[in-house]
Amino acid sequence: MANPDNPNNSFEVQCPATDSFSSLCWHPRQNYLVATSWDNQVRCWEVMATGQAVPKSATSHDAPPLCSQFHADGNSVFTAGCDKQAKRWDLATNQATQVAAHDAPIRHLSWINELNMLVTGSWDKTLRYWDLRQQSPAHTQTLPDKCYALSVSHPLLVVGTAERYIQVFNLAKPDQVYKQLQSPLKHQTRCIAAFPDKQTTGYLVGSIEGRVAVQHVDDHLASKNFTFKCHREEGGQDIYAVNSMCFHPTQGTFVTTGADGTFNFWDKENKQRLKAMSKCKAPIPCAAFNHDGTILSYALSYDWHKGAAAHNPAAAINKIFLHAVQDSEVKQRKKTR
Fold first, then answer.
1. Contact in structure between 62 and 45 (CB atoms under 8 Å)
2. Where are the bilayer-spanning segments (predicted)?
């Protein structure tokens, strides 16, 4: 019988976080996991072959960090958030140094190895590109509104802002908007994930209204665009936000996590759900695949979708789990008629 506190029989990461998780990221080649949380902390674990996560190191911000990503060399981690600055955390020395700043909280960041630059997206309505050898941004790109979502798959960068604006950039010309549109979804954008496939340029858009759009950049592929519903209770009465989406590193399929406490695996090519996992006791604000896609990390914690009135600190759940990914969950398969 399933454990109601761990209905998917995942490995639990022992973590002393006292507030909700905001992001998860993995080392590009090894099984080191980093989590940021609203208690201002950034923590790192080494995940063993047994599934046990061993604490390695920790650092902090002056205000809650909201995002994180490893440098391509795996030696350091970029983090940023409500203190309006991005830091580079050297895991060998445990030293964190400021590498970027904005005039408002930084919601997202991404290391672009092909440009040797960090890009940060903020609620100050700008994207800023940083050459880490310089203190000032190499380029500041004004956005239509506050940055809510950002995803990079070189040469594609896609940013989603307030008021449902989406801007698409070709990173060969990061100072020029390649395409601007309003989200095909009718409600606020929560997350974006660029296709990892270099041959087909596109991205996913997830909204607060339990829906995902599959979008292609090139106009001649517009007929392949579609949307689908997800993270809704049976009968459709209760509709939840799509909190995060990430592509499997090798299969081209992806996972969504929701405010309903579920995570689902999807195949966009064959327009089907591959696996629906059991509902957890709290929302899932973030998730991430490890470098080879054999582990999916996901966090359980309150995501504030019902505001402060629904938050009970005494009963709050703040946990990280590791799911052993099965081939049947992530491999594309043709629909059976």
1. no
2. none
Percentage of the chain modeled with pLDDT above 70? 99
CA distances from 262 to 183, 205, 240, 257, 298 (A): 24, 18, 10, 6, 10
Cα gap 59→79, rounded to integer Å = 10
Is it true that domain 21-142 has CATH number 2.60.120.620?
no
- The first and second tokens of residue 76, run together, are 């350091």
**Of 83-92, 195-204, 243-252, minimum mean pLDDT range:** 195-204
Question: Which regions of the chain carry the CATH code 2.130.10.10?
Answer: 21-142, 148-282
Identify the architecture of domain 148-282 in CATH.
Answer: 7 Propeller (2.130)
Interatomic CA distance for residues 314 and 4, integer angstroms: 19
Are the C-beta atoms of residues 249 and 293 closer than 8 Å to each other? yes
The model's pTM: 0.96
Please, which residues have CB within 8 angstroms of residue 193's CB and are 6 or more apart in sequence? 151, 203, 204, 206, 245, 246, 247, 254
The β-bridge relationship of strands 179-182 and 165-170 is: antiparallel
